[in-house]
Amino acid sequence: MKVSDFDYELPPERIADSPASPRDAARLFVHDVASGRSEHAHVRDLPAFLAPGDLMVVNDTRVRAARLVGARASGGAVEMLLVEREASGAWRALVKPAARLKPGELVTLEGGALVARMLVRETSGDGHGEWRVELLSGATRERASDDELERHGRMPLPPYLHRPRGEDPRRDADRASYQTLFARELGAVAAPTAGLHFTPELLAALDRRGVERAQVTLHVGEGTFRSVEVEDTDAHRMHSERFVLDGCAADAIRAARARHGRVVAVGTTSARTLESCALDDPSALVAGPSGLVAPRAGETRLFVVPPYRFRVVDVLLTNFHLPRSTLLMLVSAFAGRERVLELYREAIARGYRFYSYGDALLLVGEPRHSSAARS
User: Fold this and answer.
1) 262-282 burial string, b = 16+ CB within 10 Å, else e?
2) Domain carrying residue 31
3) pLDDT (tens digit, 9 = 90+) per residue, 215-258?
């Protein structure tokens, strides 16, 4: 398919600059894929659209405070995003501006609290430069700890959420708002945004409804910030992301299937993890989707684009995503490209808020079992 097939026009005022308060007050656009019927509610109403015995799968990744701003000795401004720490202790980092920096140069970050020693530069084709850097404590010039990074770094908000480079009065608010209730495993450079909508009150209501819950981990990588630069989707090389799906999650999915419950993926990251671990049914004459998963850990480059057939996910809770993005392509594979773009146009007309801090879309897929219908 063409990447331009996933384009749409979004008025700038529809981009949410802050989350709803409370989080579950965000609006919820509910669409049943089989019947074509839509409803409009709020995230706090989610239990009404799920059934006892359904299994909700969430991503428990935790976002690093990995965005750092500072200056060279000459005074030139520098901004970097720490992407991943290597076995050597050095970091892969996206740096702006990249070309002017030199190996061995020291960059003062966050008012001197941290220092980056530039090691080796690698080039990329999207306006970012990737460097290997050593992150040091500004006070001791020894290798900086995770605690120092979390204390002095900034949340790596998407570029459409504009925040000042200097003192930011919303810095502490974003630290709380851009982290899900499930965040536990440190390692993401972006939030799994569908999970941002949950509150303790909503989880309690889901528990009372009889909706079970399981956790997977997928550390959202820098690919979420990068545009798709080819026109043919077959030519796109999907970024890799580290994931873990353990035995407890696999057992929970097996139990949900046994009771004819649906698997509800909270976000595209949970969906991508589940589909990366999907099992074929060995009893079928021609191997087909069993709806089950195997415990796995590693990296996934799974690129979900129409006409992909989902093997595990029955219901998808997701935010409204950027045009031409791989996230929009995944959602389109679940419900159909033309239908999803139509839903997006309706959401825009109805004043829904888009992107990371915006409202949510609940897509109910084709039923696997008649007993999975809402009761």
Assistant:
1) bbbbbbbbbbbbbbbbbbeee
2) 3-63+180-372
3) 999 999 987 767 788 899 989 988 899 999 999 999 999 999 99
Element spanning 250, H or E? helix 247-258
- Reported as half-sphere exposure (CB side, CA atoms, 13 A), residue 222 has a value of 17
Q: Is the CB of residue 78 less than 8 Å from the CB of residue 70? A: yes
List of residues 6+ apart from 365 with CB closer than 8 A: 33, 34, 310, 313, 314, 315, 316, 334, 335
Are residues 50 and 96 both part of a single domain? no
Instruction: Please tell me whether residues 213 and 190 are part of one structural domain.
Output: yes
Name the pairing type of β-strands 106-109 and 114-123.
antiparallel
Residue 175 within a domain: no
3-class DSSP assignment, residue 31: strand
CA 8/CA 321 separation, integer angstroms: 10
Q: How far apart (Å, rounded) are the C-alpha atoms in residues 256 and 212?
A: 8
- Distance from C-alpha of 55 to C-alpha of 264, rounded to nearest angstrom: 6
**Residues whose CB falls within 8 Å of the CB of residue 269, separated by 6 or more in sequence, listed in order:** 59, 61, 192, 218, 220, 241
Q: State pLDDT tens for residues 123-177.
A: 654 445 789 999 999 999 999 999 999 999 999 999 899 898 888 888 899 999 9
Residue 115 pairs in a beta bridge with 108, 136
Backbone angles phi, psi at 18, to 5 degrees: -150, 160
Tell me the CA distances in angstroms from 221 to 9, 93, 297, one per residue in order.
26, 12, 16
Strand partners, 315: 264, 364
pLDDT tens sequence across 264-304: 999 999 999 999 999 987 665 555 678 899 999 999 999 99
Burial state string for 34-71 with b = 16 or more CB within 10 A and e = fewer than 16: eeeeeeeeebbbbbebbbebbbbbbbbbbbbbbbbbbe
**DSSP assignment of 131-199:** EEEEEEETTT-SBPPHHHHHHH-B----TTS---SS--TTHHHHHHHTS-TT--EEEESS--GGGGG--
Three-class secondary structure of residue 21 per DSSP: coil
312 inside domain = yes
Mean of all residue pLDDT scores within the chain: 92
